[in-house]
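Fill in residues.
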């Protein structure tokens, strides 16, 4: 292997770390896709899987242009390679483990979405560091690539931020009987309604745009039906609660 400078070594090290993470996420996203039944969420996961594969290829290309290779890093060559292998194995195991998550279908998807949200933010941090390093070293091509990838991760994180409340509400529909969706003895008041909608804060509008209604319609039909089965035991204030459910 030809001699590399400290500058090249550091760039290659960071690009290799990003590449390892992208490869790990290809495996995780594939596992999550196999468990995702909601059409809008599924479509976005498929798009991000394609994006992630492209990011991995972009990184391989840039690493090659800088004279490195993805499987043999530089100074930390041995450690990095071992880490990449371990990380891929762990990712595979995690993917299999994720299939066992949660008590219901919606909760599995919610747990996956939370993991994806975490991963997106790790990637955002990784690309921000690469972008800054490359700018500091005057490597415009690497900085541009890192910026492009960071923006893709930010868009996916923003999607997940809208999706997590949608999936959480689906867990409620799927797993909590209508009569238990308010504290015992409490009827819905104007104050509690504003608290619920108000909790969205700045995210409220986005959340609405996330299509809570549409998504619930697609994934929630079956579970809503199941929940409806317990409607016979609805207590005195059932009419109020039914309105609550359809309005939320
Ligand atoms: Fe990525």
């Amino acid at each position: 292997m030809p001699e590399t400078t400290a500058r090249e070594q550091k760039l290659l090290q960071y690009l290799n770390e990003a590449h390892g993470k992208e490869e790990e996420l290809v495996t995780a996203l594939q596992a999550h896709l196999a468990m995702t039944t909601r059409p809008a969420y599924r479509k976005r996961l498929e798009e991000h899987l394609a994006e992630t594969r492209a990011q991995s290829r972009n990184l391989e290309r840039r690493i090659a242009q800088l004279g490195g290779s993805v499987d043999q890093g530089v100074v930390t060559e041995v450690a990095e390679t071992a880490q990449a292998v371990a990380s891929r194995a762990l990712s595979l195991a995690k993917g299999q483990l994720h299939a066992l998550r949660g008590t219901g279908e919606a909760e599995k998807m919610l747990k996956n979405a939370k993991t994806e949200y975490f991963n997106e933010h790790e990637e955002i941090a990784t690309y921000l560091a690469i972008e800054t390093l490359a700018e500091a070293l005057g490597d415009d091509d690497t900085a541009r690539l890192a910026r492009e990838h960071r923006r893709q991760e930010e868009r996916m994180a923003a999607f997940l931020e809208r999706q997590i409340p949608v999936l959480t509400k689906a867990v409620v529909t799927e797993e909590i009987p209508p009569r238990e969706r308010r504290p015992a003895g409490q009827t819905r008041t104007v104050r509690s309604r504003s608290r619920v909608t108000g909790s969205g804060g700045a995210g409220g509008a986005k959340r609405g745009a996330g299509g809570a209604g549409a998504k619930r319609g697609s994934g929630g039909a079956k579970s809503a039906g199941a929940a409806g089965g317990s409607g016979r035991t609805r207590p005195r204030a059932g009419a109020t609660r039914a309105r609550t459910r359809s309005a939320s």
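The first helix runs from residue 6 to 33.
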